[in-house]
Amino acid sequence: MLTRRLALAAPFAFAPLPALAAGFASFLAGVRADARRAGVREAVIDDALAGLQPNSDVLRLDRHQPEFTLTWAQYRARVLPGSRLAAARVHYSSDGALLAEVGTHFGVDPRIVVGIWGLESGFGANTGGFSVVQALATLAYDGRRAEFFRGELMNALRILNAGDIGARGMTGSYAGAMGQPQFMPSAYLRYAVDYDGDGRRDIWTSRPDIFGSVANYLARSGWRRGEPWGQPVAVPPSYSGPSGRDAMLALSEWERLGVRRADGGKFSRGDVHGALVLPDGAGGEAFLVYWNFHVIRRYNPSDFYALAVGLLGYAAA
Question: 285 catalytic, yes or no?
Fold first, then answer.
C-alpha cells in the first residue's frame, strides 16, 4: 500500500470535465463488457455504472499532489502528535479484548494492527468520501495509469458482485483506497476477512473485520509471531559503521560497534539479527529493526511509515 493523502468530499459529488466526459460512455461500455465476461451480474453492473460521470476533483487531486520532502523528525511530528498517541492508547484499551483475540488468531502483534489503523485512517475517522467506483473509473479513463486503475475497477466490481458492500457504501480515497484499513480493491480481495461471521467482509464499519483484515495482511506477509518490529537504540556520536535496513548483523556485532539499547544497556541476546536504521542520518534518532519491520513495509514500502506504525503501536500499550 502507498502512503495516501486522503481528500474528503461529498460522496458521488462531481463536476464533469466536458472534454474528458465526451468519450466516457464508450469507455464504460468496454468496462461493462469486461465485467460481464468476468461473471459480474448485470444488476450489479447497472447499479455501479449507470449514470456514472468522471469526477474532476479526483483528477485535480491526482494531478496536483504536493511534492515535498520531509525529514524523519518532521514526518514523526506530523503523523505522531501527542493527540494520536493518546488516541491509540484509548482505542487499544476500549478494543483490547477484540484486538487480543485477533492477534492470537492470526499470530500478529495487535499493537501493530492499531498502529496501521491509526496511520491509515486516524482510527476510522478519515476514510475518504469518494465513490470508489467513480474514482477508479475516472483514473482508468484518464489514461496515465490506465491498466492499473482499470484492473482495480474490475476488482471493485467483483467485490460488489460478492455482496460484501453496495456501490453507495463503497467509499474511500480519491485513488480508490477503501475503508478504515485503506485497502485497494486488489488488497481487499487477497486479505479482507469476515471475522465477525456475518457473511460480509466489512472494512468500513465492522471493527472485527477491520482488525482481522489488517492482521491477516500482516500474517500472510510473513509476520513472525512473538518477535518485535524494532527498538530505539543509542549510537556513538562518532559512529561511521554500516546502516540501512538491509545491513543485518547479530546484536553482538552491533554491540562491538558501540550500539546499545536506548537506556545504554546491553542487549539481552546477542544472536538475534537486526539492521541499524538512521532515518535522519548520523546524529538523529536510531533504531534497530528486525524481520517484522520489513513485514510492515509490505503494507507501505517506506521506512518512515514502518517506523511510525511501530512507534504508534508500542505507544498504544
Answer: no
